[in-house]
Design a protein that fits this description.
Layout lengths: L1 E7 L3 E3 L6 H11 L2 H4 L4 E5 L2 E6 L6 E2 L5 H22 L18 E5 L5 E5 L4 E3 L8 H7 L6 E10 L9 E6 L2 E6 L5 E8 L3 E6 L6 E4 L6 E5 L2 E9 L10 E4 L2 E4 L5 E7 L5 E6 L2 E6 L8 E5 L14 E4 L5 E5 L12 E6 L4 E5 L5 E5 L9 E5 L3 H16 L2
Helix pairs in contact: 3-4
Length: 401
């Protein structure tokens, strides 16, 4: 430890009555970030003398050796530190503001940290001179002095990626090696205050992402853009209103595949007037995206190719085991039996026999009236309703396999 200041307690008086200053310093080290607690030098009492110590590895310089710009930086750091300490400790340490009362500017020591920033260490903090009729708040006077050489007034504006202002939005201000939670106003703006020119600060959204770095310049604008993410769902149906699971199509030129429900869902960063371009077979569609994911459900209709109906296969005329009968079986183009279907057998001489297939698609007809050398044709009609019923039976049969 390095001795920075020594003073007789007969010449100064403590302003935090009934408190052990060494214990106060220990509480400061416990409750504050090190960069803040290091502003208060360690204290030891030896008889009637008080001694204040700093870090032996730091080259401290007295306030009197600071140039005009460095004095402004000292005042700025003390302002930041005082605001932070009072906001953090006032509930548990009501005397927090009194920590920043010192007998004179001679008790202000400063140095540059590894990043080139001015840092301050106070000695005889919480004390004033006994000979002075009225306490003078040295640090408050320093803080109130104008800083025309070193600082610029900084106001920040934040928009979302869709172009709308980030109104009443939580964000983090990264400043002086600390993180300060902040909230924008209704216009998406926030007044940071006076910062040192050529120094840097940063903002992040509340989640810690969307990081933006800034360098302080005079008369500069500081604008950040946070991502606004939204979700969407595209469902694909055919001309019958049936969903298309496992269906491949393109969104914004990229191939995607629907899930088991015939849908594809994704998340993206919303930009102004953002639209989805969907290409599915011969269908091309565009959909405007909304901030509210609940309004981003879209439907694409496609046309499935249906099998062309071909003439049924010629019926089979098969002799049955029973004498005097002919068995006729009617099948569709897939070889599936056609049950309960009326049909007619017509000879080249105009003879006509009417019949109807049974559940197996077959019918037995007496040989009477058939000649060995005669030519016959079978005529039947498949209506749309009958075809739909057959397709239903076929799907049921395939589903049971």
């Amino acid at each position: 430890m390095k001795e920075l200041s020594r003073q007789s307690l007969l010449k100064i008086r403590d302003l935090i009555h009934g408190q052990n200053y060494a214990n106060i310093k220990a509480r400061l080290d416990q409750k504050l970030p090190h960069v803040m607690s290091a502003t208060f030098a360690n204290i030891a009492i030896y008889g009637n003398d008080g001694v204040w110590y700093g870090d032996s590895d730091i080259d401290y310089r007295p306030y009197s050796e600071a140039n005009a710009m460095e004095k402004e930086e000292i005042a700025a750091w003390l302002e930041v530190c005082k605001n932070e300490v009072c906001a953090t400790l006032q509930p548990s340490m009501p005397y927090a503001s009194t920590l920043f009362i010192i007998p004179s500017r001679d008790q202000i020591f400063w140095y540059h940290d590894s990043d080139g920033n001015v840092r301050v260490t106070l000695t005889q903090w919480g004390f004033s001179l006994k000979t002075r009729g009225m306490d003078v708040d040295v640090i408050s006077m320093l803080i109130s002095e104008p800083r025309q050489l070193t600082q610029a007034d900084v106001s920040l504006h934040i928009d979302y990626s869709d172009g709308k202002p980030a109104a009443n939005t939580d964000f983090n201000l990264l400043l002086f090696n600390g993180i300060k939670p902040c909230v924008t106003d209704e216009a998406g703006s926030f007044h940071v205050g006076h910062l040192f020119c050529n120094k840097t600060f940063a903002v992040e959204d509340a989640s810690g992402g969307n990081h933006h770095d800034f360098e302080v310049k005079r008369d500069a604008e500081y604008r950040a853009v946070f991502e606004w993410r939204t979700c969407y769902t595209v469902a694909v149906e055919n001309q019958k209103g049936e969903r298309k699971p496992g269906f491949s199509f393109n969104i914004d030129g990229k191939p995607v595949v629907t899930n088991a429900d015939g849908e594809y869902s994704a998340e993206l960063v919303l930009t102004p007037a953002r639209k989805l371009r969907v290409e599915a077979k011969d269908t091309v569609a565009e959909f405007a995206l909304n901030r509210d994911a609940g309004q981003n459900s879209f439907l694409v209709k496609i046309t499935d190719e249906e099998q062309k109906l071909e003439p049924p296969r010629p019926p089979k005329l098969e002799p049955k085991s029973e004498p005097g009968e002919i068995k006729v079986t009617l099948l569709d183009t897939d070889g599936f039996p056609l049950p309960d279907l009326p049909f007619s057998i017509i000879s080249n001489r105009g003879m006509k026999i009417d019949a109807k297939t049974g559940n197996d698609g077959s019918a037995s007809i007496s040989r009477a009236g058939f000649s060995k050398k005669g030519k016959y044709k079978i005529v039947f009609n498949i209506t749309p309703d009958y075809r739909e019923n057959i397709e239903k039976i076929k799907r049921q049969a395939n589903g049971n396999k």
